[in-house]
Amino acid sequence: MISMITDGPQTSRAVSRRSPSLPSGLVHRDDAPGLRRGIRGRAPTLLGIGVILLVGCARTNHYLIHPREAAPEVVVWSADFARDELKVHLEGARPPGAGPFPTVLVLPEEERTATDMHGVIWDLAARGYIAIAADYYRRIEGEYRRNMFAWRSTGDLTLLIDATRAYPEADQNRIGALGFSEGAVVSLLMAAHDPDRIKAVVAYYPITDFPHWYAGKRSGLSSRVIFALGRWQMRDESGAASDDDFQTMLRLASPLDMAEYIRAPVLFVHGAQDTLLPPEESERMAERLKASGNTTEVLLVPGGGRLFNFRQPQQATDAWQATLAWLDRYLQPTPRAGG
Fold it and tell me: Which of 67, 95, 118, 335 makes a 20 to 30 Å CA pair with 133?
């Protein structure tokens, strides 16, 4: 079972002050998550992504091209959901009215939180979307903690999608996912594990083939050191009993190996100058999707470096316009003739 814990209203000029309507099977509690739901479907061990990948995170600006405040009419809220050993914290924003509105799930890069995505979700809400940002915590030794290996089952990956049912304003037939780096990996895996509900994906600079990436080489002293630390942290936190087990975990975490299950149209956005997560990670995944008959495109951003959309204004703007066009194409209703 999935349990829900809601916070009080968040500071904003337009804030939802009612408890969300909970569908059958969802329980609202004010204390702590304690109810559980059996995991459905396949339950492979899934790998989170190393915190070391966030190179130079102190220089990122998540409001670079996004609003620093929610528009007066935008409704905002916070909530927490839990299932089994996983808890997800949500930061939500939506247009005024009853909807139903197309919904975009927003997954941040490694070591960033749902709160860091405020500018992104406020931007989307002002454009007619329900936008829900999420970060995850895994129960370890009796308490919830951030962990590289947060997603370990199909139920973990679909927890966020299931949580949208608590909000009647969310159109269950128009749900998309937007992810950055680690969040892009999660977005792709969600689309693979729940292909009937995820209808569009925009994936910014994901790792799509962990064994290939893990075995790679890097040039330059700083790149080699950072890459080595990232690989060490992955291996250490995996808890794998052997190298063979670890390689299995890497494969299960790789969207490339799940490409045949994805049915949503996917837009990959990748900086052409990203050396830590090279563009081939997106390009190879796109080719695999095309081979399965899926709709996909790769936007290679000239001059874009690591996390360019939170650092380089012009490249960020170009990528954001392409992102909005993709989401509009696949999630917004088709305009009526003459409308």
Answer: 335
The CATH number given to whatever domain includes residue 148 is: 3.40.50.1820
What pTM did the predictor assign?
A: 0.82
Evaluate whether 299 touches 270 at the Cβ level (below 8 Å). yes
What secondary structure does DSSP assign to 73-132, as a single string? T-EEEEEEEEETTEEEEEEEEE-SSS--EEEEEEEPPTT--TGGGHHHHHHHHHTT-EEE
Domain membership of residue 180 (yes or no) is yes
Closest CA to 205 of 255, 279, 275: 279
Range of the domain at 324: 40-77+84-331
Tokens for 278?
């090279």
Among 194, 213, 217, residue whose Cα is nearest residue 205: 213
Give domain status of residue 227, yes or no: yes
- Give the C-alpha distances (Å, rounded to integers) separating 286 from 196, 281, 319: 20, 9, 17
Tens of pLDDT, residue by residue over 13-69, are 334 433 344 333 333 333 333 322 322 333 333 444 443 444 444 489 999 999 999
CA distance 101 to 174: 8
Please report which helix (H) or strand (E) contains residue 252, including its range: helix 243-252
Residue 2 forms part of a structural domain: no
The answer to whether residue 315 is domain-embedded is: yes
CB 85 within 8 A of CB 139: yes
Number of domains the chain contains: 1
Does the CA dihedral 114-25-2-189 come out positive or negative? negative
Question: Rounded to whole angstroms, what are the CA distances from 144 to 84, 113, 118, 136, 236?
Answer: 11, 15, 23, 9, 19
- Give the span between the Cα atoms of 16 and 12, in whole angstroms: 9
In one-letter notation, the amino acid at residue 81 is F
